[in-house]
Prior knowledge:
Low-confidence stretches: 1-19, 124-130
CATH topology of the largest domain: Alpha-Beta Plaits
Strand content: 5-15%
CATH class of the largest domain: Alpha Beta
Number of helices: 14
Strand order of the largest sheet: 6-7-5-8-9
Largest sheet: 5 strands, mixed
Amino acid sequence: MVIVDNDRPRDAQTLPSSADTLPQDSAARVRTLEQVVAHQAALLEREDEVHRILVRVVLAGGSLHDVCDAVAGFFGGAALVTTTDGRVLAIAGDESEVERVRALPCFDRTGRLLVESEPVGERDGTTTGAEPTRALVKIVAGGSDHGLLGAFSPDAALTPTDVHMLERAATVAALAITKEQAVAAVEGKYRAEFLRDALAGRAGESGDAVSHAASLGWNLARPVVVVVAETDENDEQTTRSPEEVRGLQERFVRAWVQAVRARDASVPVAGFSQEVVALLPADPTASADAVMRTVADIAKVVRGDGGGGRRSFSTGVSRPITSVGDLPAAYAEARKAVHVGRQMHGESALTHFDALGIYRLLALIPDGADLRRFVDESLGELATDDSPENEDLRRTLSVLIDTNINVAETARQLFFHYNTLRYRIAKLERMLGPFTTDAQLRLTLALALRIHQMRGI
């Protein structure tokens, strides 16, 4: 007979488990089943927790940073949202983890995620050295691809269940992006209209324009330079569909807006057709080189090493101005710098208006055939690239003219022996005439050499 102590709490009584009453092999199977059930219960509990957190983010109208912060909390590491071409829109997590993530080889020197080499979905489940395991999922809304949501775990490998939870978070990120784009579209419309009026001289008195700009979050009460960035691909002659062209231009504008605002949120910046215009603050006493370094840093971020499907673009910079009334002239300078700079240096050119020199006048000639004839008549057989020797002789001629026919200095710059250079001068004079003694001929040849360097003539 079994005696049960009824005064003992029920949960403290010794009761046989289901596994204790079964044969050994059956008991093992039961314990395995109990472990599976417990594991699934833990996963469901975690998914329920993730669901509650994401719902709170949605109801609070959370931003992309809020989404990243929640995802970073799930996995104890860092999380980020990027555009389809890899520009980081938001990143969150412990500061040390964020620094580790940014130092990973999956980011280039501009901070862009190398999306073209990063797989979407679960990665290799092993963690090597200090590199955290990571997973990326697409952010899709309304059939449009808005970018990627990534999770970086410092310890455990990310499982298919983790990726599934990340996909649920990507849905919330899609809502946040859609909301931000809708707000930005409305704000961008009014800002772009105002900036277009200011660049055309239709913004009214300077005081009124400065006040209106301030109401839009822009600062025009300081000296600025006008920066114009224009895609090198001619959208009017492209084989791309209108939808693709529009999407690429919107991406181009967003890249510039993000890069500029990361430095100064009060800088006016907007996109028009094939170009983006920004009014960067500039010290009127600063050198052109100092201004160009700032613009080059921004352009480097926008370009992102050209990866992720980014199109090449050329950039022009005006002289500094101190009044809103000078904006139309500065805008014309920046546009001229873009177009002439592309002719001088090719695609991806970065040109200051003051660096155009004689090219400013040459660009005014609408007929490239006239320029080509002038080059052919002035340089003769040197105008062609039929042989490598022609290019070499043009280089020698250019340095000679730049040094005002200083033979010793030319030989030093070209690393030629003095007698070798004398031989070349004699050969050039047989081909072109006595340019060493004829100043007018030197001027003609110098102009022809400059035109020869221009593209599209």
